[in-house]
Write a structure and sequence with these properties.
five-stranded mixed sheet; 308 residues; alpha/beta
């Protein structure tokens, strides 16, 4: 049986999995991510490969942060792992790992997991948006990942909130500052008069699920604003489905509230505004999403996907 090595590079840990071509995980593990050392990073990847070198490996498929040219495994940027900036990973590893290597942005990998076997399966068009420290995302057009002209399609974090003033790095509200988990918990903490650093997403949603009035009001406000942003995207893209990921997407009350706010918004907008209401659901995959999506990307790019 053919096997594949899938690797998900994160800021703190590197996850890996031995998989078959249907994304069944046969074995997996995780090691710490080197913080400031390219050679150390390369050594870790090689060590993971060597662990499974006798397992009839066909390719190494990687998910990683940053702006990545997947056609040549080149990192323009790499998020917090700045030692990967300007690195062609396949070239750096070709003498040490005798496999084809593909690399795809992590948010886009997560979206492909949803398209292959999750909430986007069977959908022709959609948006996958992950709410976390920032906002990751990807676009599905005609049943395929749309990477964009420079591999940046779906980078929602940098969308400006104020279109009536010049955009600047300082003093500008961005989507990543408005719709991240921290924005939600900070809004609640300030209204309750408590230290924002003393509450996390889990604590906050415990209060929501206990019907704390302030917590519920903050969630309503958050989803009201997000629904308006999604309307703007829908007027441009006209997709059939939006999948919400990130840790807070596992909170059913978030998805329920967002769907309610979207319905209320579409009930209010004038009939001459040509927007179709989209379905919204939580992403199905969480911890293994990037591993699955990275493999899917490799299989599709090489015409090897067997859907049987």
């Amino acid at each position: 049986m053919n096997h594949y090595l899938s690797i998900d590079v994160g800021g703190t840990g590197i996850k890996y999995a031995l998989m078959n071509d249907q994304a069944e995980i046969l074995e997996k593990g995780e090691v710490p991510t080197p913080k400031n050392d390219l050679e150390g990073f390369l050594n870790v990847i090689v060590a993971i490969y060597e662990k499974y070198a006798d397992q009839n490996l066909q390719a190494l498929a990687m998910s990683a942060p940053g702006k990545i040219d997947s056609d040549r495994s080149y990192f323009y940027t790499s998020g917090a792992l700045m030692y990967l900036d300007g690195v062609n990973l396949a070239d750096r590893l070709k003498d040490r790992i005798p496999l084809e290597i593909s690399v795809l942005n992590d948010a886009k990998s997560a979206a492909l997991a949803e398209l292959w076997k999750g909430s986007m399966k069977g959908k022709k068009s959609g948006i996958v948006m992950t709410l976390g420290t920032g906002i990751g995302g990807a676009l599905i057009i005609d049943g395929k990942l749309w990477r964009g002209n420079t591999n940046c399609a779906g980078e929602f974090s940098g969308i400006p909130m104020r279109w009536d003033q010049p955009t600047a790095m300082e003093g500008q509200d961005w989507w990543c500052s408005k719709y991240c988990t921290k924005a939600l918990t900070t809004s609640y903490a300030l209204k309750k008069g408590i230290d924002p650093s003393s509450i996390n997403g889990k604590d906050y949603f415990e209060q929501v699920n206990q019907n704390d009035e302030v917590a519920v009001a903050c969630l309503d406000e958050f989803c009201d604003s997000l629904a308006t942003g999604l309307l703007g995207m829908q007027l441009i893209l006209d997709v059939e489905h939006i999948s919400i990921g990130g840790g807070i997407s596992r909170q059913k009350v978030l998805i329920d509230t967002l769907n309610r706010k979207v319905k209320e918004l579409f009930d209010r907008i004038p009939s001459q505004v040509p927007a179709s209401r989209m379905e919204i659901s939580a992403c199905q995959f969480s911890n293994d999403a990037n591993l699955i999506g990275a493999l899917y990307f490799y299989l599709v790019e090489h015409g090897l996907l067997n859907e049987a």
